[in-house]
Amino acid sequence: MRYQNITKGTFLARPNRFIAHVLVDGETVVCHVKNTGRCAELLRPGVPVYLEKAQNPARKTAFDLIAVEKGDLLINMDAQAPNRVFAEWAAEGKFLPEVQVIQPEYRYGDSRLDFVLTTPRGLHLVEVKGVTLEEGGHARFPDAPTERGVRHLGELERAAAAGLAATAFFVIQMEGMKDFAPNDATHPAFGEALRHAAANGVRVEAWECAVTPESLRIVRPVKTLL
Predict the structure, then answer these.
(1) What is the mean pLDDT of residues 14-32?
(2) Are the beta carbons of 73 and 176 closer than 8 angstroms?
């Protein structure tokens, strides 16, 4: 997936979850943050960030904040990007070569899962999670407690028990990771739910991405530690 009209700036502050103040060409601009998570380890005053110019000139915020530099890492932090990049990747047959139809926003049980893929062998449910937390070259999820994420894993597990294929797919929005694991220190219930789901028929996959300020592309699997 690609972005258009990218501008580099310097992060100044984040008054709330939805907006950030960024210095661009000597002027402070108000940007929409395309990630409502904490991202406290990423958005620190003075770090370089990348903005996409909004297509609607009437919008209150002229830019979207989509990526940030963390030392030598460039991390895409657009919360909408993982689903978009997975859909493109799956449409190319990279996830399942025999996929026939890819349907987003599939209602199953009490949850709306990200995708259902139709294959000759039946339906394959997929819940996609974007990963932006990195600790010493190790990718971790989540960066904050997510009861919704625990619920989604439960639905995947119930789907697997009913005979459907089910996958929890983690899109690591950076490159060069040593491994991926649930962030038990932040949300032990999520790690417990992920391990339980994996032991009961749910596939768990983590793939890292090649990231540029203008693009995001799924490139390779990362070893998963459960």
Answers:
(1) 96
(2) yes
Which residues are CB-neighbours of 165 under 8 A, at least 6 positions away? 119, 121, 122, 123, 124, 125, 203
Please, what is the Cα angle at 85 between 217 and 89, to 5 degrees?
80
Write the pLDDT tens digit of every residue in 109-150.
888 999 999 999 999 999 999 999 999 999 999 999 999 999
SS3 180: strand
Task: Please tell me the predicted confidence (pLDDT) of residue 57.
Answer: 78
SS3 225: coil
Compute the distance between CA of residue 181 and CA of residue 184 in angstroms, rounded to an integer.
8
Residues in CB range of 112: below 8 A, 6 or more apart: 105, 106
Query: What pLDDT is attached to residue 38?
Result: 82
Burial status of residue 109 (CB atoms within 10 A of its CB: 0-12, 13-18, 19 or more): middle
Token readout for 78 is 């657009």
Q: Are 150 and 137 in contact (CB under 8 A)?
A: no
What is the rounded CA–CA span in Å between residue 192 and residue 220? 25
| 157-167 mean pLDDT | 97
- CB atoms < 10 A from the CB of 220, how many? 11
pLDDT digits (tens, 9 = 90+) for 40-73: 899 999 999 999 999 887 888 999 999 999 999 9
Q: Look at strands 27-33 and 133-135 and give their pairing.
A: unpaired
pTM of the model: 0.96
Sign of the CA dihedral running 83, 84, 86, 90 = positive
